[in-house]
Amino acid sequence: MKYNELFVFLSGLEEKIKKMLKQEEIISLLKPYEINESVTSYLHRSAKRLRPAVFLMACGCLDKEVPIDTMLPVAFGIELFHTWTLVHDDIIDNDSLRRGGLTVHKNMEQWSLKKLGLNDKEAKEYGMDIAILAGDMQQAWAINFFVDFASKNTEYTKVILKLISLLETEVISELIYGEVLDVKYSYVYKDIEKFLSIDESEIVNMLWLKTGVLYRFSALAGASLALKTDNFKEPSIVALSEFASKCGIAFQLQDDILGIVGTEDILGKPVGSDIREGKKTTILLEALKNANTEEKDIICKIVGNKHATDGEIQLVTKLLDELGGIEYTKKLAQKYILEALPYLKNIENSEYKTLLIQWADFMYDREF
Amino acid sequence: MKYNELFVFLSGLEEKIKKMLKQEEIISLLKPYEINESVTSYLHRSAKRLRPAVFLMACGCLDKEVPIDTMLPVAFGIELFHTWTLVHDDIIDNDSLRRGGLTVHKNMEQWSLKKLGLNDKEAKEYGMDIAILAGDMQQAWAINFFVDFASKNTEYTKVILKLISLLETEVISELIYGEVLDVKYSYVYKDIEKFLSIDESEIVNMLWLKTGVLYRFSALAGASLALKTDNFKEPSIVALSEFASKCGIAFQLQDDILGIVGTEDILGKPVGSDIREGKKTTILLEALKNANTEEKDIICKIVGNKHATDGEIQLVTKLLDELGGIEYTKKLAQKYILEALPYLKNIENSEYKTLLIQWADFMYDREF
Description:
The structure is a homodimer.
Chain A: H1 4-23, H2 33-44, H3 50-62, H4 68-92, E1 97-98, E2 101-102, H5 104-115, H6 120-152, H7 157-188, H8 192-196, H9 200-226, H10 235-261, H11 264-267, H12 273-277, H13 282-290, H14 293-302, H15 310-322, H16 325-340, H17 351-365
Antiparallel strand pairs in A: 1-2
Helix pairs in contact in A: 2-5, 2-6, 3-4, 3-9, 3-17, 4-6, 5-6, 6-7, 7-9, 9-10, 10-16, 10-17, 13-15, 13-16, 14-15, 16-17
């Protein structure tokens, strides 16, 4: 099987993360029930754990001696950091499903309807309140994994402090910038003619901010801990970071593709909501460029219409495909992977390098 | 003047914080405009800066040598940590004003109406989205102050790591617990008969979680950095922490009083909204206990009614006062200050101890 080693590695990591979760004493501090459930729910669900995986693979590439398990707390911290962004994103995007279950705010909306007897409006607000606070708690908990690791492993203290500093300033501000642009584009470019004047690089930059930045950080963290250096300009650290950064863009381009032509059961989240929310993707841009007036009118009427029927969604999906939007974006994703791979040329061969190469291919090839 | 030294100290600190704010390089990373404006707006407005003040005063009590300015970055970090809780609280409480200006979500709602041409519903959502992300950024930025300080001052690294760990696990989970209880009580105890069966200690515990916990942490951080120890059980650290913790409850009880009988212009936030939101305070509990059936009916009809008129608010305010709710809560606040002061008995006399004593009195005496 093409991704055999990668999938074995990922499922091993998934198991380790779930085991750690069971032993986490902090969870007993989380009160009341609503917060405890909301902080932990996404972590309990099956997931790919790609960011901690990239962290561990980058670390393994540069330090063959370090046992993976030593670095697990930092890997968990990275997964948790990613998780709070999901919880808050889901509020912002009004999404209902994540990883095969209800999103945090939706779950608490339903819970408070049943258990607290709130009315619809109150329950909606309560669900959102809990989700905001649960994400806040996750951000803090994530940082505690880094800090705790730095306290217990003094040979890594200096590097970890520099990593937290990077994460809590540049990385998070770029992530948030990307998230705001994503929301803003769906409003500002409602007018399709205006959207057609956007440069593709603006969309790609937004995707990079939203996703590439955290993948880059994951690789940078693994590589710098392996070398025990806080000189993040060291060539092999830069190489692994840039590699992960480019692959991150491909990951997000493929995410946009799956958001339109993916399979709900496999993805664990709804397909079609990107169209209803009017998400501004390279798929949409390319299709519009190739559309005739009639096709353009159909797309304009349905994209961004929150009440579009399933039939209308199917119609637009078909058009986006036939007008070459999907294929174009697929090729764009491939282009970023081709740009990423040469960064690995000076990295010594190892099982971890093999895993990273498989991961890169998987980024534009994945169905989930 | 009664609080002369304290006010001089607070205004000096305010000036220093505003000066630091101007030099903060991180601010240039904050994009787009909406995030930059939202992350910094509360910090630019006049404020009491009580939490960083308690931190510095506790530090000064145990280490007469340390120049206050050395510890300023940590003080700023504490203020910033407090600030993200305000931004997210304001969303949750649907508040419109804070520190004499619009709350972050309200400000961005108005901005997006004007500048992005959104409709009312979209603008409300956009304002909230930005406020969620701005608070997220502030939490991260706050931690970066601690981490940066730990990197640059290696003699404090160990203590700072333990402090971040405490803040990011116990302290934040208690804060969030308190916030959820506050929201939840307003729903669960809508039925006044049910509310009358609540034990006063439940309300006080909620106030302690919401406010006392962060005051306790501020004193603990100052004291432990002064002694350069991560043994937080050291008697003078415990004494200063418990002192601040009790005063924190008094602060919040007085906050509830000012939320009903305060002066809007002095407070910089609306008076009456606590009544409209149906906030469950010791004031309300005591007044209801002393009310006859007719008075109880009036209170029940108006408290928790979001559309109550100004006249109705005035009527309830008068009743809460005449039925002894205000006086009772004032005495309760005083009781906590009286319980707090003996904790200072083994702390050597100094200008900082004098400041802490003035601060304690100010907690239940303040009009703003």
